[in-house]
Amino acid sequence: MGHARTFWTAWQRARDAGGALIMRMEDLDPDRSKSAYAEAAYEDLRWLGIRWQEGPDKGGPFAPYVQSRRRAIYLAAWRRLLKLGYLYPCRCSRKDLETALGAPHERVSVQGSLGGGKLDMEDDDPVYPGTCRRLLGNVSQLPGPTASGMDMPEGFNWRFRVPDGEAIEFLDRNLGPQRFVAGVDFGDFVVWRRDGVPSYQLACVADDAAMGITEVVRGADLLKSTARQMLLNRALGYRDPLWFHCRLVVDHNGRRLAKRHDSLSLRALRQRGLTPMNILSAELPVEV
Ligand SMILES: [Zn+2]
């Protein structure tokens, strides 16, 4: 329900601006992505009354709109970042990270915007302690040549070296001024996973640029990801889109709806007889 309302907001904003709403299926996480889920999502959102102009089911000038079929684009972005000296391979296991951070870290799985593939959503992750960055020796944080002849990312987690201490600021069109400090609020983040899957951050940035996205509408749980994506945009020479983050809808216990998969799914609400109007007009508490 939270996701549906966010997508509804995206649709309204696209309409008001005379733009197009784009449905992009973020299905990079093989464990969580099944075509039946995608079909169900299209169906539920159509039932709600949302219409998108470009998408997997409609085609469009920037097809395919399914991330699992756009790997070549992400690989090109990875190669460019590597060549520019922004990336390094990280050999740390999850256990290494827990040890380095001093306490076992319970990885919180946060579902981001619509679709799956958010396994690497790292907004609440601790800052990477920099173990593998130090192995590089005294290398400048700014772009420079990397003595890596690697052409394929397989076998490592590849991390983006963030400019420690730099404040990343942006004006959110809904929530106002935002500020995150690299190396403090978030650390070197993964752009390509050991298991061969590009990260959400990299795929998102590469697609937003390739698809000519002018405004991103998504949940406030992704604010910190936006700061990371701004660094990727800058490194790759892409212009930032405008950002509009929606406050997260919570239940009566203050728990984010996105973390619940049961009673408040659109499908379940439909089956209980709620109408699109009931769902879209309901006054719901939001996270502050
Ligand atoms: Zn490492």
Notes on the protein architecture:
- With 288 residues, this protein is α+β, with helices and mostly antiparallel strands.
- It has nine helices and seven strands; from the N terminus they run H-H-H-E-H-H-E-E-E-E-H-E-H-E-H-H.
- The strands form three sheets. A three-stranded antiparallel β-sheet has the order 1-2-5.
- The longest helix is centred in the first third of the chain and has 15 residues, at 2-16.
- Mean pLDDT is 85; it is low at 104-122 and 140-145.
- It binds zinc ion.
- The site of zinc ion has 5 residues, from helix 5.
Number of helices: 9
Note the run of SSEs as H and E.
Answer: HHHEHHEEEEHEHEHH
Radius of gyration: 19 Å
Bound molecules: zinc ion
Low-confidence stretches: 104-122, 140-145
Number of strands: 7
**Proportion of strand residues:** 5-15%
N-to-C span: 18 Å
Helix proportion: 25-40%
Structural class category: alpha+beta
Strand order across the largest sheet: 1-2-5
Give a quick account of the main beta sheet: strands, pairing sense, barrel closure. 3 strands, antiparallel
What are the salient characteristics of this protein?
288 residues; alpha+beta; 3-stranded antiparallel sheet; 9 helices; 32% helix; 12% strand; binds zinc ion
